[in-house]
Design goal:
- The structure holds two protein chains of two kinds.
- The longest helix of chain A is centred in the C-terminal third of the chain and has 34 residues, at about 345-380.
- Chain A has 21 helices and three strands.
- Chain A is mainly α.
- In chain A, strands 1-2-3 form a three-stranded antiparallel beta sheet.
- Chain B has four domains: about 45-65 and about 155-235, Penicillin-binding protein 2a (Domain 2), CATH 3.90.1310.10; about 75-150; about 305-620, DD-peptidase/beta-lactamase superfamily (Beta-lactamase); about 625-650 and about 655-705, no CATH class.
- In chain B, the strands form six sheets. In chain B, strands 2, 3, 4, 5, 10 and 16 form a six-stranded mixed beta sheet that branches. In chain B, strands 12-11-20-19-18 form a five-stranded antiparallel beta sheet. In chain B, strands 1-8-9 form a three-stranded antiparallel beta sheet.
- In chain B, α10 (about 240-250) packs antiparallel against α20.
- The longest helix of chain B has about 30 residues, at about 620-650.
- The chains are: A mainly alpha, B alpha+beta.
- The interface of A and B includes residues 336, 371, 374 and 378 of A.
Chain lengths: ~450, ~700
């Protein structure tokens, strides 16, 4: 510990690969935003400097992020372990404060106005704090993650901000917190839980796609077959029959009552419509309770069809073809057909301009970064660093996959940014902090005891 | 600790990889295998703007342009930018009220979106344009956009030149592969229609990138795929615009037509169908309204009577009968046939004859003696060598066909009729197998079943003038830049008559010259020019209240001049005008004089022009129908005025116009029917039912055309 203190050179032990990949991605991001906003005949250099366009703002944010990264690299890595719990508490407090002093942007009351036109989204920053807190909790000597109690506490740490986020009507960010289950799985969460989660998801999707009666019959047949084939085991284990019937009952009731109830009463009309449109079906908004409440508002102007975003996004990406239309030559990008193209739908600009080849290379860079982080994680001696590294990988993974899947129509549209690429100071800053804390921790991986 | 659960790291990495593979899979599906997205992207973002070339110009034989292009203006609005518009001024200039203004803006927003420019008022009249142009600064969001329109500087030859109009679905179906689109204009009648391919030119396409609100963002790929428009080719006609104008003037208030042909070439010198209308009447923003008016007129001004109406040719047909008789040798030039006032060859004293005498061929023609030609016709059909009337009639028809009768000539204006030369099978059906010449004796004097169009009649005159040949009558003389489609080839083929020697034509011409000198056509004499002509007076009947009623005779006249070096062959019909000598013949003489001498000379002749132009020969049936229509219109108008008046009395405060009830009444139609009021220049007036509206003409004030 003392030996490393003596070494004052901050570049000592830094994993430059991650830093360069980070720089590459941010650069790609600025070019993408430039591509989206480009108009022929502008003075490129001037607009980059002037600070009026999004790409020039993003450039400024990048400088801010570099400063932030310097600070983090200069900080003592012990700082993060020491303040982890406090920062988590602070984060939760911020999220609670949002309910009081929050500002509503795009229908979600999850922003705290900072003045000067800047707003802070606590849920975004809370990801970092939660990662640190989770790492702290799992790295405690007394934590035995094979115990149910620890698992529940870990789950609570991960999901508390998510629940608050849902109440702020920011479902997208809430979902991100579920990515911590990947970390917990790595640290010993029983796979049964994940299997259960996946089965549930499969059941919900099946409910959406299939006719209710068809699915009920299918479930019944599966249950009957299971009972038939487990004849022998059932003789030894009397409870099995009860379990199977219970599972069957739960499945059918979920399919018959729970899912329709959630879609009609819990979700907003637009959310249900998006999820339904993903599986290629129309959702009848007249069944939706919240829609019925606002039925008078709905008679306003004729809206664009609800799958407009996905359709335009798929058109932009699909028209890119194998090698794309070329830099700044995307007609869909130029024509601003894809809504929110500089933020959530930034991937479409790559898809259109550089085609499948470009997408492949781009995703390869991301995958490389993810695998590199996991690789680093496994190298760590301290549990804290390893868990934190896994947190970073999971959050990045979740963001990338959900964002890309949503642009190519594999996932319903939720407001999740593409890390380091999408326009937005909050998002860029939080990912920078997330990554550079990892770089800092990794640089000090010789420090075993923490 | 780090060794614990390490195997799960691998699982996580594999899971990451797998999810990325799924994404790549979907990308391959979208970008490589789904062609529809490329198409959708193109439909989204590429706007193909069609660049319309200028249509070809049409010139007359003296290189005067009679159909050309002018620039007209549309008032175009972008609703979202139209803030702070001085609506009061705008509405005043456009003769609309503010309610109408709001309605249009709303409708445009609904139909075409509020951020795109849309036409607010199309094809502005010059007055409106001038007024708007001065005040454009008061109307943000409005612009005046140019557009090319057709203009007829001489306001003449409406039915010959035709008009263009927006294509409809049936047109698009018919011309599937010619690249027409909804909203395009194409020639609908006349030369505009027949020479559409040539006049249209070649359209160009410009590709633009447009954004999600259909605003143009710039050219696509710097215009690499753009094509430029090629202007339509110009047409040069054989038509003489002065002759055409004179013809139209002389045919004022008459129903009928005039066709004049240059016998040497077959080029049509004038083609007048009366009543006609000012072709400029069917351009501009009132086109639809004006078209409706014309279409409902009982005198059918939209029909080109020169090719589309069939008439019994009357005595003019006697020339053909005479030629056939002479050629077949049933008479010779000196044969004399006595006429006692009727033809008794078939025993019933029909047809009757006006002036009795003992005529040779020349005198027979000069006096248009029915008995003479009935005899010739009977002799021709009764010839021993044919055995029966069937083959004799076939032979007769062969002669007639060779003069261009009975079949379509192939004139280059649309909807030409074929006329009628009845064949033996037709008579067999009526009279049985043993029909004979007496059954069809009225054909000999051009009555009965024989029917011709006026173009065919003019062509017969040309053939006689040429002594035995003709070229298909045509309007287009040459196409600038060459006749690529070979459309003029058929007009260069010389058609000769069936072995008629020159001497016989000489005889016929003698007869026709005599017509002018001492016969029925004395009225058609032209000072200093030897004219050959033939009158015709045709009995006809029409259905009145379901009963065939005999109408006043049609007046025909066919002529050519000068005899020795024929320059013009002409045929005229005035429907229900009585004797051919009284109306058609003097018109012919004036037309011939105009063409050959290039002007009408002498005050007496000039006075004659005015006198003839004033002569009202509209058939009484049509007068009646017109009067009926006008009275219905008047009644409707009265009702409207009445309603308006009642409404006005309820709320008088709204109006800013002077509240003087006496001069307000005539203004009422303006208030109630903005369409009417927008072109006050129109010379249509509403007469009360008692006054016949014979002078009703479809013209618009000259000032309106000259921009």
């Amino acid at each position: 510990m003392t030996s490393s203190r003596n070494n004052t050179k901050i570049s000592q032990g830094i994993d430059w690969v991650v830093v360069w990949v980070y720089a590459l991605l941010v650069a790609i991001g600025i070019l993408c935003i430039f591509m989206v906003e480009y108009k022929p005949g502008i003075n490129v250099f001037q607009t980059f400097i002037a600070g009026k366009t999004n790409y020039s703002k993003q450039l400024m944010f990048t400088f801010l992020c570099i400063v932030m990264a310097m600070f983090i690299l200069l900080a003592d890595s012990k700082l993060f372990t020491a303040f982890a719990n406090m920062m988590y508490a602070f984060g939760i407090l911020l999220m609670l404060a949002t309910f009081v002093i929050g500002k509503s942007i795009n229908g979600s009351k999850s922003w705290i106005p900072l003045g000067g036109g800047f707003n802070l989204q606590p849920a975004e920053i809370c990801k970092i704090f939660t990662s640190l807190a989770l790492a702290k909790f799992l790295s405690r000597q007394e934590t035995d993650f094979s115990k149910l109690r620890s698992q529940i506490i870990g789950g609570c740490i991960a999901l508390s901000p998510a629940i608050l986020s849902i109440f702020q009507n920011e479902t997208g960010l809430a979902l991100v917190y579920f990515s911590f289950f990947i970390v917990m799985y790595r640290e010993g969460l029983p796979p049964a839980l994940l299997i259960f989660g996946f089965s549930f998801a499969a059941l919900v999707i099946a409910t959406l796609i299939l006719e209710p009666n068809t699915l009920a019959i299918a479930l019944t047949i599966i249950a009957a077959a299971t009972i038939y084939f487990t004849k022998r085991i059932r003789k030894r284990n009397k409870n099995l029959l009860v379990t199977i019937i219970a599972i069957w009952a739960i499945c059918v009731s979920v399919q018959r009552f729970a899912v329709p109830y959630i879609f009609n009463n819990v979700f907003q009309c637009y959310q249900s419509t998006r999820i339904f449109s993903m599986v290629g079906k129309d959702y009848d908004c007249s069944q939706n309770k919240s829609a019925m409440r606002r039925v008078s508002d709905k008679e306003k102007a004729a809206k664009k069809p609800d799958d407009y975003n996905v359709r335009q996004s798929k058109i932009a990406i699909g028209s890119g073809g194998l090698i794309g239309k070329g830099f700044l030559k995307g007609t869909q990008t130029r024509g601003k057909y894809v809504p929110e193209q500089h933020t959530d739908f930034i991937f479409t600009s790559i898809g259109e301009a550089f085609g499948l080849a470009g997408c492949f290379v781009f995703l390869a860079i991301y995958l490389f970064l993810l695998l590199r982080i996991i690789n680093l994680a496994e190298k760590q001696r301290s549990t804290f660093s390893r868990v934190y590294a896994y947190c970073v990988a999971s959050i990045l993974f979740f963001h990338i996959v959900v964002n890309v899947c949503m642009t190519i129509g594999l996932f319903p549209i939720i407001g999740i940014t593409l890390p380091l690429i999408s326009y937005g100071g909050s998002s860029l800053l939080s990912f920078t902090i997330l990554l550079f804390i990892l770089v800092r921790l990794d640089a000090d991986r010789q420090m075993v005891l923490r | 600790m780090s060794v614990f659960n390490q195997s799960r790291s691998g699982i996580i990495q594999i899971a990451f990889g797998f999810v990325f593979l799924v994404i790549i899979g979907q990308l391959v599906n979208l970008q490589v295998f789904s062609a529809k997205y490329k198409l959708a992207a193109e439909n989204n973002a590429i706007y193909r703007k069609i660049i319309y070339p200028d249509r070809g110009i049409i010139y007359d034989r003296n290189n005067k342009s009679i159909l050309e292009n002018i620039i007209m203006y549309d008032l175009v609005v972008t609703p979202v930018e139209a803030k702070g518009v001085d609506t009061l001024t705008l509405c005043k200039l456009l003769n609309i009220d503010s309610v109408e203004y709001k309605r249009r803006i709303k409708e445009i927003g609904y139909r075409n979106g509020t951020v795109r420019p849309s036409v607010f008022e199309s094809l502005l009249s010059p007055e409106m344009y001038a007024g708007l142009n001065e005040n454009m600064f008061k109307f943000p969001g409005f612009i005046l956009s140019e557009r090319s329109a057709r203009s007829y500087p001489f306001s003449t030859a409406a039915n010959v030149l035709g008009y263009i109009a927006e294509v409809d679905t049936s047109f698009l179906r018919k011309h599937k592969d010619e690249g027409y689109e909804n909203g395009d204009y194409a020639g609908m009648t006349g030369l505009e229609r027949n020479y559409e391919k040539i006049l249209m030119g070649k359209r160009g396409v410009k590709r633009f990138i447009r954004d999600n609100k259909s605003r143009i963002q710039g050219s696509f790929e710097n215009g690499r795929y753009d094509t430029s428009a090629v202007a339509g080719k110009n047409l040069h006609l054989s038509l003489d615009v002065n002759l055409q104008k004179l013809g139209e003037k002389l045919m004022t208030n008459k129903v009928g037509s005039i066709v004049a042909i240059d016998p040497k070439t077959g080029g049509i010198l004038c083609m007048v169908s009366a009543p006609t209308y000012d072709p400029n009447y069917l351009t501009g923003n009132q086109r639809r309204h004006h078209y409706g008016e014309l279409a409902l007129d009982p005198r059918l001004p939209l029909i080109n009577r020169t090719v589309s109406s069939k008439y019994s040719p009357g005595s003019t047909f006697k020339t053909i009968v005479g030629i056939v008789g002479l050629t077949e040798g049933v008479i010779n030039a000196n044969s004399r046939i006595g006429c006692s006032g009727a033809f008794w060859g078939c025993g019933n004293g029909k047809p009757k004859c006006l002036d009795p005498g003992y005529f040779n061929f020349k005198e027979g023609i000069a006096h248009s003696c029915n008995t003479f030609f009935a005899t010739v016709f009977k002799r021709t059909l009764d010839q021993q060598k044919f055995g029966n009337a069937d083959s004799a009639l076939t032979k007769f028809n062969e002669y007639a066909y060779s003069f261009g009768l009975g079949k379509r000539l192939g004139v280059d204006v649309p909807s030409e009729k074929n006329g009628n030369l009845p064949v033996s099978s037709y008579y067999r059906k009526i009279f049985g197998r043993n029909w004979n010449s007496c059954n069809i004796i009225s054909n000999s004097i051009g009555q009965g079943e024989v029917q011709t169009t006026i173009v065919q009649l003019a062509n017969v005159m040309a053939t006689i003038a040429n002594k035995g040949y003709f070229y298909t009558p045509h309007l287009v003389d040459s196409i600038e830049g060459g006749d690529v489609y070979g459309m003029l080839d058929s007009f260069k083929v010389k058609h000769t008559t069936k072995d008629v020697p020159d001497s016989i034509f000489e005889e016929v011409q003698n007869g026709m010259q005599a017509v002018m000198e001492f016969g029925t056509g004395a009225e058609a004499k032209v000072p200093g020019i030897v004219v050959c002509g033939k009158t015709g007076t045709v009995q006809n009947s029409a259905k009145v209240n379901g009963v065939m009623t005999k109408q006043k005779d049609h007046a025909f006249f066919g002529a050519f001049a000068p005899r020795n070096n024929p320059k013009i062959a002409i045929a005229i019909i005035c429907e229900n005008a009585g004797f051919g000598a009284q109306s058609s013949a003097p018109i012919a003489s004036l037309m011939i004089e105009q063409y050959i001498k290039d002007s009408i000379e002498g005050s007496q002749r000039k006075a004659k022009v005015e006198e003839l132009a004033k002569k009202n020969l509209i058939p009484p049936m049509m007068k009646l129908a017109m009067a009926r229509m006008d009275s219905v219109k008047q009644a409707k108008l009265n009702l409207l005025i009445q309603q308006q008046k009642e409404k006005e009395e309820e709320d008088t405060t709204e109006e800013e116009i002077s509240i003087d009830s006496t001069d307000r009444i005539p203004e009422k139609p303006i208030l109630t029917k903005p369409r009417e009021s927008r072109d006050k220049k129109k010379s249509i007036t509403f007469h009360s039912a008692a006054i016949l509206t014979d002078e009703k003409q479809y013209t618009i004030n000259k000032k309106t055309i000259k921009a």
